[in-house]
Design goal:
The protein is α/β, with parallel strands linked by helices and 419 residues long. Helices cover 17% and strands 32% of the residues. The protein has seven helices and 29 strands. The strands form eight sheets. A seven-stranded mixed beta sheet has the order 1-19-21-22-18-14-17, with helices on both faces. A hairpin with a 2-residue loop joins strand 25 and strand 26. Helix 1 runs parallel beside helix 6, helix 3 packs parallel to helix 6 and helix 4 packs across helix 5. The longest helix is centred in the C-terminal third of the chain and has 19 residues. It is elongated, with a radius of gyration of 31 Å. The structure holds adenosine monophosphate (AMP) and magnesium ion. Adenosine monophosphate binds next to helix 3.
Length: 419
């Protein structure tokens, strides 16, 4: 087991042990937010036929070449094509067909003159503009060609991807499995939210934050409850998590007399890869795997303090859970931000500073959320980003720039639409 490693080494060790999970088939109604597990090639042409982009008249452009506003070309209107008509006859030269948006363009027609550029008089229509060939016609296949690779495995399925799957006639789709994450809290001081907090007990907020962090990125938390500070209770609860893909336990992994989690993990056959990462908050982080063959769950022993637990989840558990789902990008967006005020620390550990972010023209300004204590959960509520204060540095001057992981892109949200 390694001790006191850097954040980069910790992450590399974790990802080296993290498998990509297998696939499952889900209906497209369930697929939003999942990671696509297959390349989707089109078995269709989209749109399937030339169709009209306007309400108007389908014509042969050559028949209207001399049309002018005050010298229209008159054509007989021989039939109508409403949207959805499938038995569309061919258009004879020198005639027009009434057509509506989305309707198939008749064979023989090559352009659609919009209604506003015509005048109808009984069975005839006056065409008042000379259409360019193909005017107002959406060509078959202009969106998707037959056999085209439309969606690539590893893509997150969003609203547009779902619409495309539906358009291709897909009712089910292969996606990566969602990791099941057993979430365990531990400590004699902890109660559930409706519990009695007299005598200095506290609510196990980590149970909720961590389960929510799992859900937010598509993993499925399974709550194991609160273990007492007693090896047998920790063991019983951890055993219930052995069938999961990942176990995330918070607290009890430090060096206190009542920190039993590491010992119990080892007893359960968990090989610890490292303990202690040179970061703040979050130093007492442990990581291991159950089973020599790597088929048991990955195990994260997070520190107990609410900010440390969330921060280590964010930096180390989140990328692993994304990797498991087949995601291609594992990390938050990073921006370079300018510090509103100087920051100081002792060299040695990398600090993960919770900051608010503000746009000033093209520049992003980062400002500490205030009290950076690892028990101050409000710092996570305020945080729009996490500023990387490198391990070796001891000062970042006001106005200096630093890398910030963006947690909340809403700082870019505008109060006007930009048009
Ligand atoms: P420990 O790692 O057990 O020493 O816990 C460190 C700090 O985190 C202590 O102040 C604990 O009360 C607090 N803590 C531990 N577990 C939780 C939890 N599930 N929710 C909120 N705070 C916790
Ligand atoms: Mg404790």
């Amino acid at each position: 087991m390694k001790r006191d490693i850097s954040a980069a080494e910790a992450l590399a060790q974790i990802l080296a042990q993290t498998p990509v999970l297998g696939f499952e088939t889900v209906s497209i109604g369930e697929a939003l937010g999942r990671v696509l597990g297959e390349d989707v090639r089109s078995t269709r042409v989209l749109p399937p036929a030339d169709n009209s982009a306007m309400d108007g008249y389908a014509v042969c452009a050559a028949d209207c070449a001399r049309a002018k506003h005050d010298a229209p070309v008159w054509l007989p209107v021989t039939f109508e094509v409403p949207a959805g008509r499938t038995d569309v006859p061919a258009l004879a030269r020198g005639t027009a067909a009434r057509i509506f948006t989305g309707a198939a363009v008749p064979p023989g027609a090559d352009s659609v003159v919009r209604q506003e550029d015509t005048d109808r008089d009984g069975e005839r229509v006056a065409i008042r503009v000379a259409p360019e060939l193909g005017l107002n016609v959406r060509r078959a296949g202009e969106d998707v060609a037959y056999g085209e690779l439309v969606l690539e495995a590893g893509a997150r399925i969003g609203p547009a991807q779902l619409g495309m799957l539906a358009s291709l006639g897909r009712t089910v789709v292969a996606v990566h499995q969602r990791p099941r994450v057993a979430v365990l809290s531990g400590g004699d001081e902890l109660v559930e939210p409706d519990g009695d907090i007299t005598g200095g007990r506290i609510v196990s907020s980590n149970s909720w934050s961590i389960a929510a962090q799992c859900r937010e990125l598509g993993a499925e938390p399974v709550y194991l409850g609160i273990a007492r500070d007693a090896p047998d209770d920790i063991e019983r609860k951890l055993r219930a998590g052995l069938a999961a893909d990942v176990i995330v336990s918070s607290a009890g992994v430090s060096v206190g007399d009542r920190d039993f989690v590491r010992g119990v993990l080892e007893k359960l056959g968990c090989r610890l890869h490292f303990w202690g990462v040179q970061i703040r908050p979050g130093y007492p982080l442990a990581f291991g795997c159950v089973g020599e063959d790597g088929r048991g769950p990955l195990v994260f022993g997070l520190p107990g303090n609410p900010v440390s637990a969330m921060m280590t989840f964010e930096q180390f558990v989140r990328p692993a859970l994304l990797r498991m789902q087949g995601a291609q990008r594992l990390h938050r967006p990073i921006v370079r931000a300018r510090l509103a005020e100087a920051m100081r620390k002792k060299p040695g550990r990398m600090h993960l500073v919770r900051v608010t972010l503000e746009r000033d023209g093209e520049t992003v300004i980062a400002r500490s959320t205030g009290n950076q204590s690892s028990g101050v959960l409000t710092s996570m509520i305020r945080a729009q980003g996490i500023l990387i204060f490198p391990a070796d540095a001891s000062e970042l001057a006001a106005g200096a720039s630093a890398s910030v992981q963006v947690l909340d892109a809403d700082f870019l949200a505008a109060d006007a639409p930009g048009f």
